[in-house]
């Protein structure tokens, strides 16, 4: 039986390139006692993977010559492991490959939920929990406050804005195309959306946030952060989820020159990583599913068929051409 | 009866200059009903005044042509006000002047305390409360943690480090001369002090903070912040008290290029202004006085005699030549 996988062969300089990955075929060995074989069904692709390719951060870098790290959902095809049976749906860091030989560690059986498989990535999992805990725990939104979200049409940002609406905030998104902005305001209920490629962000914030900004959910960093900082209210909050503007810089971009605003407006700027909230995922899952069922929380998947196209799909994250959560359909669900 | 005062006549570009101020003499009018006349005894000079001279921030800028704003302690010389009697010691924004004609608003009678007058500025008041609430509320120090303080030989920084020691932290100060560093380690009990003018800050932090940094009390900003960010531990805190490195820049200096560390290490960076904690000043006063009485908390005053020298004394704050809290002795205490 044959497995295909993408190996990381070079650390990215600037934008990741297709040539940073190499396609490998290998024969899957027979299962030893205590092992199971998982067939990957859907692989999640995320901006954070750029960091995993490059260097040690909150997790060690992917070693060159090994399979690229990635979270995926799969089905147990064969099992010599007492906790897993053939047909079980599981989730874990299966990697960019078709089959994953596992001893069960780090693998979780999917809890039964009234949502399609794709919702595990688009609504729940690290995407949904990042939006949920980042906004609610660090952002502490209150009804009537103004929430600004950057990368607002992204997987996390689009959920953040909708949760902000559920909590009674005025929600303004920043995104990179008119189509994305339309989606935010016309389908997701954002109060306004700013196309940062065609509009003057400073003026647009002034217009769309007449009472200033109480929460800035930060996915971008760089110049966007600098501009939004000048609109923050006293005692405002900046949950720092990502800084994608800097991920592909070969030289670190200078930070905002106006950090003094943090003092003037007593701003709380705080970074987080979703895994810090793992122990509370049941609580988030329950609310996210309920909001989705009530029609208050939508998600969108950007699905690429076939593992062989994974690097191409991954690059969409950095040119802004994806619409929704980027996933690869590795094999059929059933 | 004659009053002398310093008028703000120009907004600073870069470093404040003596010519930004003009010396004025005026006759003090007779007291109306409900007014009192305060003779200034001791005037506090602080880095934040650079901001007051330049632009609206958390308080409006000082208007050109009016007396320069400043906190001072004085004695009531004459009173037509039922709440104040001749001889009362009072504190308030008396300004850079010898006499202050007041209707009583914003003026507080000094509570009786077993400390010399100078302690009202060096140990208590906005200096002491800034150190106290900034470190304890935002920094949340725990025994065994490592605290780094920039501008550590300054009025606030020197208190912050000593309070850190009281709370059981390893305390490392950053200061601008060997004499200041010696004072920190030999007299104030800091575990280590780094002379940023002669040492490589990155290497010195590595040596002196072997377990990383849990709290960075930020008075400086700029390159210092960037360097310390690379040493912060997971879930560390950065109370942002000041960013003096940028106060005299004509062009805003770029911020740190490594703000991504905020995510990697889940750092909480939070600005504050001491007046936000006004309602809790009794609590701070009590502890600060008790620590001082127990010999655990020292302060040092840098006293300049005579209001006419106020601008010269003020400039010391920006060339690092002051040793301790800068004040002007405007008149004799009794």
CATH architecture of the largest domain in chain A: 3-Layer(aba) Sandwich
Largest interface: A-B, 33 and 33 residues
- Counting DSSP E segments of at least 2 residues, the number of strands of chain A comes to 15
Pattern of helices and strands of chain A: EEEHEEEEHHEHEHEHEHEHEHEHE
- Quaternary arrangement of the chains shown? homodimer
Quickly give the structural class of chain A.
alpha/beta
Biggest beta sheet attributes of chain A: 7 strands, mixed
What is the count of DSSP helices of chain A, taking H or I runs of 4+ residues?
A: 10
The helical percent of chain A reads: 25-40%
Per CATH, the superfamily of the largest domain in chain A is NAD(P)-binding Rossmann-like Domain
- Report the radius of gyration of chain A as a whole number of Å: 20 Å
Estimated share of beta-strand residues of chain A: 15-25%
Q: Give the tally of structural domains of chain A.
A: 2
Would you write up a description of this structure?
The structure is a homodimer of 334-residue chains. By secondary structure, chain A is of the alpha/beta class. Chain A folds into 2 domains: 2-122 and 300-329, Medium-chain alcohol dehydrogenases, catalytic domain (Quinone Oxidoreductase, Chain A, domain 1); 125-277 and 285-292, Rossmann fold. Helix content of chain A is 27%, strand content 25%. Chain A is built from 10 helices and 15 strands. Chain A has helices at residues 48-54, 119-122, 125-139, 155-166, 178-187, 201-208, 222-229, 261-264, 281-293, 310-319, and strands at residues 2-8, 21-27, 36-44, 72-79, 89-92, 99-102, 108-109, 146-149, 170-175, 192-195, 213-217, 232-240, 268-271, 301-305, 325-329. In chain A, the strands form 3 sheets. In chain A, strands 3, 4, 5, 6, 7, 14 and 15 form a 7-stranded mixed sheet that branches. In chain A, strands 10-9-8-11-12-13 form a 6-stranded parallel sheet, sandwiched between helices. In chain A, strand 14, helix 10 and strand 15 (325-329) form a beta-alpha-beta unit. The mean pLDDT of chain A is 95. Strand 13 of chain A pairs antiparallel with strand 13 of chain B.
């Amino acid at each position: 039986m044959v497995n295909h996988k993408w190996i990381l062969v070079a650390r990215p300089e600037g934008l990741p390139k297709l040539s940073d990955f190499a396609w490998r075929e290998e024969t899957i060995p027979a299962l030893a006692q205590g092992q199971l074989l998982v067939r990957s069904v859907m692989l999640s692709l995320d901006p954070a993977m750029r960091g995993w390719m490059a260097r040690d951060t909150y997790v060690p870098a992917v070693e060159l010559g090994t399979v690229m790290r990635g979270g995926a959902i799969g089905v147990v095809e064969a099992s010599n492991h007492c906790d897993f049976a053939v047909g079980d749906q599981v989730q874990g860091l299966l990697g960019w490959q078709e089959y994953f030989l596992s001893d069960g560690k780090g693998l979780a059986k999917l809890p039964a939920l009234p949502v399609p498989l794709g919702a595990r990535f688009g609504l729940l999992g690290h995407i949904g929990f990042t939006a949920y805990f980042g906004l609610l725990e660090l952002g502490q939104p209150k009804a009537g406050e103004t929430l600004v979200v950057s990368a607002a049409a992204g997987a996390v940002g689009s959920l953040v804005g909708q949760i902000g609406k559920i909590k009674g905030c005025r929600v303004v998104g920043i995104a990179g195309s008119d189509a994305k902005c339309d989606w935010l305001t016309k389908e997701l209920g954002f109060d306004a959306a700013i196309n940062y490629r065609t509009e003057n962000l400073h003026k647009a914030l002034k217009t769309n946030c007449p009472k200033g900004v109480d929460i800035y959910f930060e996915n971008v960093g760089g110049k966007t952060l600098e501009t939004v900082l000048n609109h923050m209210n006293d005692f405002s909050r900046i949950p720092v989820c990502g800084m994608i503007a800097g991920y592909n810089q070969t030289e670190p971009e200078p930070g905002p020159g106006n950090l003094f605003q943090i003092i003037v407006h007593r701003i709380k700027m705080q970074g987080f990583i979703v895994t810090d909230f793992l122990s509370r995922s049941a609580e988030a899952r329950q609310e996210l599913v309920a909001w989705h069922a009530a029609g208050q929380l939508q998600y969108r998947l950007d699905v690429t068929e076939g593992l062989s196209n994974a690097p191409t799909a991954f690059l969409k994250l950095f040119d802004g051409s994806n619409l929704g959560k980027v996933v690869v359909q590795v094999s059929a669900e059933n």
